[in-house]
């Protein structure tokens, strides 16, 4: 059994989730005439969808983090601040111009520029010194938090959703039946479905860029043996600056996404930094599919935990991380 888990971590997780769902269906059958049972089904299905869409947001944040921390081995504990800073900038641009799309562009460019400053001014001077990187980036995150508190205050902000994403859409999932036998379909916020689709597209593009392009091969080669790659004439530092800028820019974009269906406020940066750390550890350092799998698992554990065991919702998230570290320290899809 343990050997199967090690060889097929993804299928192991899928089988586990399937077994949990099957147990739920067996213990609580779905007679359409029992309204109480139907309500429980609605709560469960909504919690699952909320967990998956929250995982999509976590993936957008963690995908940049896995490039910087998992792939380049740069310990950037200011990544959560990049998320919140990008969200605040996106809110300001959207509120001032009324253009939701411009908010994404400004947040990406601004955070990418800040990422370039961090890479050149901090990480290039401390290559291989993880403790110094940790301490310095903690200090940077504290400074950025104070700057954001000074500019935007302690209020809650939310990015305005464009008109075409307002309201809910019908999903092909039957949640019950009317008295005349007509099926009732599940309604779900359109903005969350959009975020899920956008996250899937971003993940596919990142995986293709890292595994099917020349620049992706240079990045992976530079991480493994930068001296040898530099000897071939590749300007490895320029490549690393570009990767850091991309990771920071993705954090800014995630901030706008998060600010669209959640609130932006002081303290959110710490929450998403911790979530990114857990996602990267669970999924495997430097693995884009691993980040996606880890994000979905963490999102589901948070939402299902908050519904069924609200007192221990946070515990379930870290319990997953502990189990992964105990049985597969390199992460579910990390290289051994």
TrEMBL record:
<keyword id="KW-1003">Cell membrane</keyword>
<feature type="transmembrane region" description="Helical">
    <location>
        <begin position="47"/>
        <end position="70"/>
    </location>
</feature>
<dbReference type="InterPro" id="IPR001851">
    <property type="entry name" value="ABC_transp_permease"/>
</dbReference>
<keyword id="KW-0029">Amino-acid transport</keyword>
<feature type="transmembrane region" description="Helical">
    <location>
        <begin position="190"/>
        <end position="210"/>
    </location>
</feature>
<feature type="transmembrane region" description="Helical">
    <location>
        <begin position="100"/>
        <end position="123"/>
    </location>
</feature>
<keyword id="KW-0813">Transport</keyword>
<keyword id="KW-1133">Transmembrane helix</keyword>
<feature type="transmembrane region" description="Helical">
    <location>
        <begin position="273"/>
        <end position="300"/>
    </location>
</feature>
<feature type="transmembrane region" description="Helical">
    <location>
        <begin position="135"/>
        <end position="153"/>
    </location>
</feature>
<feature type="transmembrane region" description="Helical">
    <location>
        <begin position="307"/>
        <end position="327"/>
    </location>
</feature>
<dbReference type="Pfam" id="PF02653">
    <property type="entry name" value="BPD_transp_2"/>
</dbReference>
<keyword id="KW-0472">Membrane</keyword>
<feature type="transmembrane region" description="Helical">
    <location>
        <begin position="238"/>
        <end position="261"/>
    </location>
</feature>
<dbReference type="GO" id="GO:0005886">
    <property type="term" value="C:plasma membrane"/>
</dbReference>
<feature type="transmembrane region" description="Helical">
    <location>
        <begin position="77"/>
        <end position="94"/>
    </location>
</feature>
<feature type="transmembrane region" description="Helical">
    <location>
        <begin position="9"/>
        <end position="27"/>
    </location>
</feature>
<keyword id="KW-0812">Transmembrane</keyword>
<dbReference type="GO" id="GO:0006865">
    <property type="term" value="P:amino acid transport"/>
</dbReference>
<dbReference type="InterPro" id="IPR052157">
    <property type="entry name" value="BCAA_transport_permease"/>
</dbReference>
<comment type="similarity">
    <text>Belongs to the binding-protein-dependent transport system permease family. LivHM subfamily.</text>
</comment>
<protein>
    <submittedName>
        <fullName>Branched-chain amino acid ABC transporter permease</fullName>
    </submittedName>
</protein>
<dbReference type="GO" id="GO:0022857">
    <property type="term" value="F:transmembrane transporter activity"/>
</dbReference>
